[in-house]
Amino acid sequence: MTVIYETADHGSLQTPPVIFKETPEGPQLAVEVVSIRISDVGSWRKMSRQLSAAAAVFFLFVYAGMDLAHSSGWNQTLNVSASQQFECSWFIGVLAGAAISSMAMSFIPKLPFYVLGALMQLAGAIMYATAPYNYSVLLAARYVAGIGVGLITVPFIIHSAEVASDNYRGISGSMEQCGLALGIAIQVIVDSQYVDDRDASVNQIHGILGIVLCLLGLVLTSLSIESPIFHIRRNQEETARRCQEKILGNFIYNVDVAFEEAKGYVQDSKQLTFCQEASQMPLVKVLIYRGFVAFSFSLPLTTSLISSSLLTEGYIGSWPVTVWGLVRLLGTLVAQAFLERLGRKLFSLVALFCMGSLILSMAFMYEDSNNVRSYYDMLQIRSLGVAIQAFAGLFVCSSPVYLGEAFPLRVKPLLVGYVVGFEQTVHIINIIGYRRASSAFFYHYYLSVGIILLLGVILFVVVMPETKRLTLREAGRRIQRWHNLRCF
Quick one: signal sequence residues (predicted)? Predict the structure, then answer.
């Protein structure tokens, strides 16, 4: 008789059947096969270790989300009027931090970036809390905190993709957007509820919450486990294996297979020529994809919601504003749950199509300039704005996942930093364009953005791959292709 013991999946790895045979002394008889499945009692423990990078910086991204919202119009405080420089300063800081980290992380582990970024964010939060009425101090705080976020973002996107196994890479990478969405919700609610309260400074509340979040993030950076790939590239195989064992625990077969896969990933990258590494196709794909994230939360969208809420409800602290802040968070949580089940491509592109269609509908509402004084039309604009944020949350979660999977190893930090910097540039252009706009700005802006997003859907259907439950090496190969028509 032959007995086959099957073990449950460990991430993307499966233990091969172990077969025990009893050799009969007589003639060969028919073989009866019995399958016994052993459950994986340590799956939750393994998942928590593979999400160590996400857990280490989640609260830092929450505070980054508060700063993002503060830069995108949610600074209705009576204490300081927001100038163009004030709104652009944080994005400029993120761009600078991303440039620094992308050039340095090839020879520096991820943990120093997390700690330094957390300390810079903490410094910015302290400035907000201690000098809420001083414009110069607040401006400096925004630059400092922005640099801190830039130092964290590029290492995290790469780190989360390298540490998580095939089944958890989507969850790990999407934690960036989940943290940002939570921070946006907090800032929107706080700013709208305290805008008319002269006894409380919104800037001071922003700083106090930032201090708490940064301290939590600073403590949790101790959970970070360095990627084995970082050490393999330096021929430190013993150190790399210890890191792999920390990630996967005492599942020896899984550690062996994952370690060999990591070595294969590094070896494949070494064999690529410079022209292959610098291939523009993956860069163009993720550059446009990540750029669309900037359109999902912008100063024009904030202004439309605030003006429509003031006309329809009479004050900014109304329930539609709160819902507007929360639906994006809900969308990211739903998307995160389905990235490894339904996949990245189809789910995200349906959300992007809906978002583009809604923005285009909003453009037509602004076509007649008299509509901005119409209760009914502004009610429709408010409803469209809420729906846009819901679908935006569903779309944005896949962007850091694709970004972590793209590009060969040697050029990955530079190109990821370039893409993150491009996203900040789109934010800055949105702000400058809004500040210098004419009365017909909203119609032309939403019409242009809606058309661009819908054209992007057509492009991504052809070129973006589905990378659900693929190894990092296989996902990178698919992104290198010119066309990927498969949607699931």
Answer: none
